[in-house]
Design goal:
The complex is a heterodimer of chains A (352) and B (269). With 352 residues, chain A is of the alpha/beta class. Helices cover 45% and strands 15% of the residues of chain A. In chain B, helix 5 (123-157) runs antiparallel to helix 11 (239-263), helix 7 (171-194) crosses helix 10 and helix 10 (213-234) runs antiparallel to helix 11. Chain A binds chain B through residues 161, 168, 171-172, 174-178, 270-273, 290, 293-294, 296, 298, 302, 305-306, 309-310, 313, and chain B through 152, 156-157, 160-161, 163-165, 168, 170-173, 176, 236-241.
Chain lengths: 352, 269
């Protein structure tokens, strides 16, 4: 009995192929039921996300035959008739177990170290468990995968730091303010990145958002989405005394916030810190503003450089993570009880 | 069995180890968690505590009776207060800034002859000395928070990547800690100095009238910290100026404390 993995991911298949292989959550139990009826595998879990579709199966078949049969089953299920080259990967032990662990840890994700996939993997496993499609082998392998993911999260820096401009903005705000609760955010220019940054700040507890845009209707629309308040373009500077974080992303060809304007504001604020995030190109905020006491200015290059460094730092951790994963996979395979004379280790499809 | 002095030397040595590790941490931009440094300082504090207790037991008195003992007590207060604060993960990185202070002042204390005699005796004197030593401990920690504030402020403005990656607490929290410690230290100093007129009756009043250097110095220190507290709470002074004030004031205290003690006939009979 071997644990095999057959699947495709963002690394091997483009989106048009991935979307054709995607299996909606509601269809997963029926697909697993079909697999059960073929007798190809004793246990199985299907993981289907926007970046990957993978079938983890425990089979008594010889690997080459198992992969051929499982591929045929999968393509039939999703009615994929086009030729496949290297899009599908076929992994047998120990590579299949190591791959499962890498997926759980976010090492195989598009954003290295992200944690969303762990939740998706848990959900896929629970769905299979609930419908009794798992048995001793997959239960152990998945439990171990969750355990390894937790260990790697705490022992390495693979998940440390923000990797998007919006998330870096939040991280910097948290380096200035003790807590984001009680701090107001102003969005000047209702762009996509500023909206994401504002949402991220709100999700971390920022009190409320004030939106200013040249088109008032767009400001009102975004303010409504963010449960905030819109102000007219010619009146945004009047709000400056109340706010602590400014995200600016207008299409203005010149600076709309200069040193003298902020200098006057800071006198009224009596030194309360002010975080300015300028994600506009050309820049909205005069760079000299950063020389004022208690004013912290970041432009899009600053934020991107921080995000890139976090990604680089995460990449440096891959070697450590892989070493942990290899050890844990070896532990799992060596801990397997000896097979019975019939070769069967567990009854098929969790009928134990 | 080691003597109290040897335990103190051991403590200063361990604080020195912590200083070396702190330099390493700071050079890396405090990117790592500082548990190791916390435990090194805890070890130093353990040896230091034994030194303080052993001296108290051997001398049958509160071990703050002379310059060496008071200096040791100030360091012990700073290290102990950090270890309590350091239980809270977000300010554990304080250790990298505490280590230079406790090591530096510790070396100074080792230069002072370990007189076994107590220059100061009696309940009132003990309260006076202990409260003032605690006040200097609070000012010391406040200046450490201020130094961290200045480092983080500089990083946030100029070394943005380092600011994002470091384990330093947010500057607003550092400012709150600094302000709180300055206020607490000022209250302790005021309370400690309030005992002085009662003590003066037992001491050389003539020397007082001539203007004892340590008393003049203490009045100056009190005024400096009063100014800082008034600036912070009265004029809502935030940020860098207050932080520079806290660092400069404590540096002044540490550089002049021993000298004025030695010049004072009352404090150094």
């Amino acid at each position: 009995m071997a644990l095999v993995c057959l699947g495709l991911s963002h690394r091997t298949a483009p989106l048009p192929v991935r979307e054709r292989f995607a299996i909606a959550e509601a269809r997963v139990p029926a697909t697993l039921q079909l697999l059960r009826e073929t007798g190809l595998a004793d246990e199985a879990v299907i993981l289907s996300t926007c970046n990957r579709v993978e079938l983890y199966a425990v089979t008594a078949l010889e690997p080459a035959r198992a992969f051929a049969e499982l591929q045929s089953f999968l393509t039939n299920c999703v009615e994929y008739r086009d030729p496949l080259n290297d899009e599908l990967y076929k992994l047998s032990e120990p590579a299949s177990i190591e791959h499962l662990f890498r997926v759980a840890c976010g090492l195989d994700s598009m954003v290295l170290g992200e944690t969303e996939v762990l939740g998706q993997l848990k959900k896929a496993y629970e769905l299979a468990l609930q419908h009794k499609f798992t048995g001793g082998r997959l239960n152990k392998a998945f439990q171990k995968a969750f355990n390894v993911a937790k260990h790697i999260r705490t022992e390495t820096n693979i998940q440390r730091g923000a990797t998007s401009v919006a998330a870096v903005a939040v991280e910097l705000a948290e380096k200035i303010f003790s807590a984001l609760s009680g701090h107001q955010v102003m969005v000047i220019g209702a762009g996509d990145t500023s909206e994401k940054a504002a949402r991220a700040l709100l999700s971390r507890g920022a009190q409320s958002v004030i939106v200013a845009n040249r088109t008032y209707d767009r400001a009102a629309e975004l303010a409504k989405e963010l449960n905030g308040r819109a102000v007219h373009w010619d009146r945004w500077s009047e709000e400056f005394d109340k706010i602590d974080i400014v995200i600016s992303s207008t299409a203005a060809p010149h600076h709309i916030i200069d040193r003298s304007k902020i200098d006057a504001v800071m006198k009224r604020r009596r030194g309360r810190p002010l975080l300015l995030i300028d994600i506009a190109v050309p820049r909205d905020i005069e760079p000299e503003v950063n020389f004022l006491d208690n004013v912290y200015l970041y432009n899009v290059d600053d934020l991107q450089a921080i995000a890139d460094d976090y990604i680089r730092q995460r990449k440096e951790e891959i070697v450590r993570c892989d070493a942990i994963i290899r050890d844990r996979a070896r532990e799992l395979t060596s801990a397997r009880p000896p097979q019975t004379s019939s070769g069967a280790q567990r009854p098929a499809f969790g009928h134990d | 069995m080691l003597t109290d002095r040897q335990f103190f030397e051991l403590a200063v040595f361990v604080y020195g180890v912590s200083l070396l590790y702190s330099v390493f941490l700071l050079r890396q931009g405090l990117r790592r968690d500082t548990w190791v440094n916390y435990f090194v300082l805890l070890a130093g504090f353990g040896a230091h505590t034994v030194a303080v207790l052993q001296r108290g037991v051997e001398q049958h008195r509160c071990p703050i009776g002379n310059l060496y003992e008071v200096t040791s007590f100030i360091i012990w207060t700073i290290a102990g207060a950090y270890l309590v604060m350091g239980l809270w993960g977000r300010v554990r990185s304080f250790g990298a800034f505490v280590a230079p202070v406790v090591f530096g002042v510790g070396v100074f204390a080792l230069l002072v002859p370990p007189d076994s005699a107590a220059n100061y005796r009696g309940g009132l004197v003990s309260a006076h000395v202990a409260l003032i030593a605690l006040a200097y401990g609070a000012f010391g920690l406040g200046s450490i928070a201020a130094a961290m504030y200045l480092v983080q402020d500089r990083n946030l403005k100029l070394h943005k990547l380092r600011a994002a990656l470091s384990f330093l607490p947010p500057i607003q929290r550092l400012e709150a800690i600094m302000s709180g410690l300055l206020s607490a230290g000022f209250a302790l100093l005021t309370a400690g100095l309030a005992f002085a007129p009662m003590l003066a009756k037992q001491q050389d009043v003539v020397a007082l009238l001539r203007g004892d250097p340590k008393i003049m110095w203490s009045a100056l220190v009190w005024l400096i910290y009063l100014a800082l507290v008034v600036l912070r709470w009265g004029f809502r002074q935030h940020g860098k100026r207050l932080a520079w004030g806290a660092v400069a004031s404590f540096t002044f205290v540490m550089l002049t404390f021993w000298g004025f003690n030695l010049l004072s006939p009352i404090h150094n009979p």
